[in-house]
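SEVERITY: medium
COMPONENT: batch folding queue
REPORTER: lab tech (J.R.)

DESCRIPTION
The queue accepted two submissions in a row. Attaching both inputs and their returned structure tokens so the on-call engineer can compare them side by side.

ATTACHMENT 1
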Amino acid sequence: MSKINELAAKIGNGQNPLFNELYGTDAAVLKAQAERYRTQLEDFKATFGSEEVALFSAPGRTEVGGNHTDHQYGRVLAGAVNLDNIAVAAPNGTNIVRIKSVGYPQFEADLSDLAIDESKFSTSTSLVKGINARLKELGYNIGGFDAVIEGRVPEGSGLSSSASFEVLIGAIISHLFNDGKLDPVENAKIGQWAENNYFGKPCGLMDQTACSVGGFITIDFEDPTQPIVKALDFDFAKTGYSLVITNTGGSHANLDSEYALLPSEMKSVAKELGHEVLRPLTMKQVVDSIPNIREKVGDRAILRSIHFQADNARVVDEVDALESNDFQKFLGLVIESGYSSYMYNQNIYAQTQENFDSKMAEQGVSLGLALSELVLRGKGGWRVHGGGFAGTIQAFVPNDLLEEYISTLEHVFGEGNCHKLFIRAKGAIKVEL
């Protein structure tokens, strides 16, 4: 804990080693981040009055490899990004958590009652209660605190603003009440548990883990109760590339059936071959079975299963490429993953009958990928980002093509819809200057 005026002085103009790790080296960006932190410090003092506070940051995340592999107990590759949620926080000596989140109504969570309340599903209050309930159950200390939170992880960007919020809350409780003893992977599991049980949303563990651990990570979900998480020793900042996430527009409304069909079709193939999910099977087993199961499951289910087998194996190759510092090989694998998603997984535009007429002309993701290939062919990598069907794409862009790439994509999708990012090494942390 430090005094607000001391923290503001240490932040200065943002020129410090930790800010460089979190936000890069651009002087204008660092100055803006410094102003951002000082604004939240002043807001906290005006709102809650305390002079002794701590600073926290939790990044968003990007899926890099393994598209729609986690629900079949497969492998994924993900990375933390430099867009983050930050918090100014201090214990308040009560059983009440009070949070002012910039742009949203202030709310409270009473820790004296940690029972699941389905009427509060899908609220931040329920998430905070769920995180505290799980921490208490695991033997950690909990307590009331005040916090001002300001977020720069855009909602709907596929960068997982919700997971970033969850592990930020976990980091705050860890440092305010448990001397920072909460392991990053445990923090991720607690956030997932709270989202599943208190928020009412089933989700995997990739998002929370990437946000909590930081850097490039790979996760193997072969045993979904004990996923294997590995952090990769790779410095993205030295590649000479930027990561660009582009919002191609299009609504996710009425796409629930598209998302539901994808895992169910994969599972239908697995079931015909004696398994619940595809992970225990090999590509050869899937291909050998086609004549016997084709009429039962349909061709698209088989194609999606082929995608799973290929992309699940591709994650291993991507990890090997990064650990061998062979970034060009990695970029080629990113492109392969994107082609597989387009041709086999078929999650680039809506196809179900209920959406066919209204959505068929809406192919923003397809158009974004086509434009990416026109600019980056032979010089970068591009693929769908996240669930697909609408929304965002991802590209690794050499810095000498960055201006051309962004201007080309924003010419079509609108100014401000390209987000220039990098993979940040730090996960959910206490900001110690």
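ATTACHMENT 2
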Amino acid sequence: MEPATVFSISIAVVLVAVTGFSIYTSFGPPSRELEDPFEDHED
């Protein structure tokens, strides 16, 4: 394989991994630990 192809595939894999981790953190079990700053300071 050409180095440019390997580089492109590795960047795509990193982007998919970061996106998957972000979605898991936002909507998965760890989301219970997230706090909403707007609920903390209601008027």
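NOTES FROM REPORTER
The two ends are 60 Å apart (CA to CA).
No errors were logged for either attachment.
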